[in-house]
Amino acid sequence: MAADTTLELARQLLGFNTINPPGDEADCMRFFAGWLSDHGFEVSLSSFGEGRSNLVARLPGNAPGRPLAFTGHLDTVPLGNASWQFDPFGSQIDGDRLYGRGSSDMKAAVAAFAVACVQHRQKILHGRGAVLLITGGEETGCDGARVLIEAGDLPEIGALIVGEPTANYPVIGHKGALWLRCETRGKTAHGAMPELGINAIYLAADALGKIRHFSPGAPHPLMKQPTLNVGRIEGGLNINSVPDRTRFDVDIRSAPNLQHATIRERLGALLGENVTLTTLVDLPAVLSEERHAWIRQVYHRCQPLHDAPLTPRVVPYFTDASLLLPALGNPPCIILGPGEPSMAHQTDEYCLLSRLAEAEQLYADIIQDWMD
After folding, report:
1. Whether 163 contacts 106, CB under 8 Å
2. Can you give the three-state secondary structure of the chain, one letter per residue?
3. Tens digits of per-residue pLDDT, 274-291?
4. Catalytic residue annotation
């Protein structure tokens, strides 16, 4: 019955279009808040702009100690340019696959941990309690989590589970993200008299030649080599003018051994005075101590689902944990969700129903362990 309830809730969440940008999570968040309230949660909704909202839901416990927290986001990335075979908001099922934008990343996980809490509500109420931190705006740099933190409404917690897609493999960390906008300024002139201007595209091209071989820093034992990618460039207004402004955006993925301020300083020195840097996103890396007792306990629960012995793993994508963990006092954190990592942001995104059922049971086992 729990698995049926999880699937039903996942399909309902997938029915809402929460593509970000623009990030219209409010209707989906209100629906989910009502569902949680109907199932005994204390619910608080907060807005951070038109159509944007966050949700904090609590099942307060009566036993000493801090509650177990789950976090997930309800916004999704755009559909992309390729045609979908399955309706991205139809929550269609084909064999073992539940299709829809956000199925793996990460509405199925949100449904699974919410239902697991409801199924074990009495255990939670007599134990240390549980908290759900549900955000909007994660896909564009953890915007909702940042607002949630600034509002000062975060409860004290003992441990955090992030339901991002890991195919139910326990992950102890992820890389940090530093997104920089690099801008060059020139002088406009008629395209037939380029000698009278300064071409900002040429300045950007010189900068790109330098940045292509820039290393953000030394490798990390677990997260390996940091990465850099130029993901977007734009410049010029028309073909017959010398462009006076060009900008390109840089995506750097870092590790705990690297300081973002140092990376930016080194890059700025390399590019020189012709390039102005602006920080768009600054999210630190996350890494929990694998030997922590709770982490080992979660490993124990996950091991039967995997053939080989579990080893410390990290993922390259960022999560709301980048901001939530420091604000929550850096409790131990596991990234654990039923979604397929390879399906995140893909056309015809899906989550395996078998993984979804496994996740609901995994979350239930972790909840019971925490309350005992």
Report:
1. yes
2. CHHHHHHHHHHHHHCCCCECCCCCCHHHHHHHHHHHHHCCCEEEEEEEECCEEEEEEEEECCCCCCCEEEEEECCECCCCCCCCCCCCCCCCEECCEEECCCHHHHHHHHHHHHHHHHHCHHHHHHCCEEEEEEECCHHHCCHHHHHHHHCCCCCCCCEEEECCCCCCCCECEECEEEEEEEEEECECCECCCHHHCECHHHHHHHHHHHHCCCCCCCCECCCECCEEEEEEEEECCCCCECCCEEEEEEEEEECCCCCHHHHHHHHHHHHCCCEEEEEEEEECCEECCCCCHHHHHHHHHHHHHCCCCCCCCEECCCCCHHHHHHHCCCCCEEECCCCCHHHCCCCCCEEEHHHHHHHHHHHHHHHHHHHC
3. 999 999 999 999 999 999
4. 75, 138
Residue that is written with structure tokens 């960390």 in the block: 173
Asked whether 216 and 258 are in contact (CB, 8 A), the reply is yes
pLDDT band for position 1 (50/70/90)? very low
**Statement: residue 48 has pLDDT above 80:** yes
Q: What is the pLDDT of residue 153?
A: 77
Cα angle: 354, vertex 360, 366; to 5 degrees = 130
Token pair 């996980």 in the structure block, residue: 109
What's the pTM?
A: 0.94
| Spatial distance between the Cα atoms of 159 and 161, rounded to a whole number of angstroms | 7
Q: How many other C-beta atoms are found inside a 10 Å radius of the C-beta of residue 219?
A: 13
Contact 63, 127 (CB under 8 A): yes
Are β-strands 93-94 and 97-99 bridged in parallel, bridged antiparallel, or unpaired? Answer: antiparallel
